[in-house]
């Protein structure tokens, strides 16, 4: 079997996984971002925060995006601690964040034991304008490793910046879906044939990138709607 998808809570599933059973973690957790007040954080949905008002799609909402910063730090630290445990020595971690959440994400991954190596910007050619200032045209993947970088297993030289637009039309399967070409580039940090874990599988973009490049995939997704999408996409990519 080249892929496995667990439907359920990420932390609950991770605690049942054995030590050192995957080679890398690449994940896009709910950012819990864009909420300056409690009323906005608890009263708006993920769709309300991350989808433009003129969007034509009716993609399902998702839970877990209403935490304040202390709650998010505790939550992400617990997740990344379990990810650290189940990853083999030398394995890489890539975890996405927006500009607001880079600091707390870097705190969480280091508190979990990972060695922080850098930030890989993802440039979005199509991004929302900002009146009176700069367009928010980037999100970020924070790169870390479990111990030293094991370059002998995967002697690649990768770019420090990627540019790709989010999927549109029928190719858009998730509110915050990452582009397949972006994930295909980032997956190269994983040694060929390795097992990639994504505890927030969403629409399965990390898994598709893994399978189409000869790697294996283990995903976790709490939403039954998005788990169905992920299974469909992984089956097609297998």
Key words describing this protein structure:
single chain, 31% helix, globular, 8 strands, Rossmann fold, 8 helices, alpha/beta, 238 residues
CATH topology call: Rossmann fold
Q: What is the typical, i.e. mean, pLDDT?
A: 88
- How many strand elements? 8
Q: Assign an overall shape.
A: globular
- As laid out across the biggest beta sheet, the strand order is 1-8-7-2-3-5-4-6
Which structural class is indicated by helix and strand composition? alpha/beta
Number of helices: 8
Helix content: 25-40%
Write down the Rg.
Answer: 17 Å
Please identify the top-level CATH class.
Alpha Beta
**N-to-C terminal Cα separation, in Å?**
9 Å
Total number of domains? 1
**Which stretches of 5+ consecutive residues score pLDDT under 50?**
none
Hey, roughly how much beta strand do the residues contain? 15-25%
Following the backbone from N to C, one meets helices and strands in this order, namely EHEHHHEHEEEHEHEH
Largest sheet report: 8 strands, mixed
Enzyme class: transferase
Organism: Kitasatospora gansuensis
Family: Belongs to the N(4)/N(6)-methyltransferase family.
GO cellular component, one term: cytoplasm
Question: Care to describe what's here?
Answer:
The structure is a single chain. This protein is α/β, with parallel strands linked by helices. It has a single domain (3-237), classed as Rossmann fold (3-Layer(aba) Sandwich). Helices cover 31% and strands 18% of the residues. The protein contains 8 helices and 8 strands, in the order βαβαααβαβββαβαβα. It has helices at residues 10-15, 38-43, 46-50, 69-86, 102-111, 180-186, 205-212, 224-237; strands at residues 3-7, 24-27, 92-97, 115-123, 138-145, 162-163, 195-198, 216-221. Helix 7 (205-212) links the parallel strand 7 (195-198) and strand 8 (216-221). Helix 4 (69-86) packs across helix 5 (102-111), helix 6 (180-186) packs across helix 7 and helix 7 runs parallel beside helix 8 (224-237). The protein is globular, with a radius of gyration of 17 Å. The mean pLDDT is 88.
């Amino acid at each position: 079997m080249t892929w496995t998808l667990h439907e359920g809570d990420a932390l609950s599933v991770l605690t049942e996984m054995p030590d050192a059973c995957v080679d890398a973690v690449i994940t896009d957790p709910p950012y819990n971002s864009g909420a300056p007040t409690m009323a906005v954080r608890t009263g708006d949905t993920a769709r309300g925060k991350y989808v433009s008002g003129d969007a034509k799609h009716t993609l399902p909402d998702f839970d877990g995006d209403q935490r304040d910063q202390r709650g998010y730090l505790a939550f992400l630290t617990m997740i990344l601690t379990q990810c650290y445990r189940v990853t083999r020595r030398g394995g890489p971690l890539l975890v996405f964040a927006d500009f607001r959440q880079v600091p707390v994400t870097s705190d969480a991954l280091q508190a979990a034991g990972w060695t922080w190596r850098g930030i890989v910007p993802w440039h979005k050619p199509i991004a929302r304008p900002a009146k009176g200032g700069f367009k928010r045209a980037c999100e970020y993947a924070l790169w870390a490793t479990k111990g030293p970088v094991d370059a002998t297993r995967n002697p690649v030289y990768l770019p420090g910046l990627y540019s790709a637009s989010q999927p549109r039309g029928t190719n858009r399967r998730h509110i915050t879906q990452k582009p397949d070409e972006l994930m295909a580039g980032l997956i190269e940090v994983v040694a060929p044939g390795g097992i990639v874990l994504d505890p927030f599988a969403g629409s399965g973009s990390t898994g598709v990138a893994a399978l189409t490049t000869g790697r294996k995939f283990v995903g976790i997704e709490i939403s039954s709607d998005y788990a169905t999408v992920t299974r469909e996409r992984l089956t097609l990519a297998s």
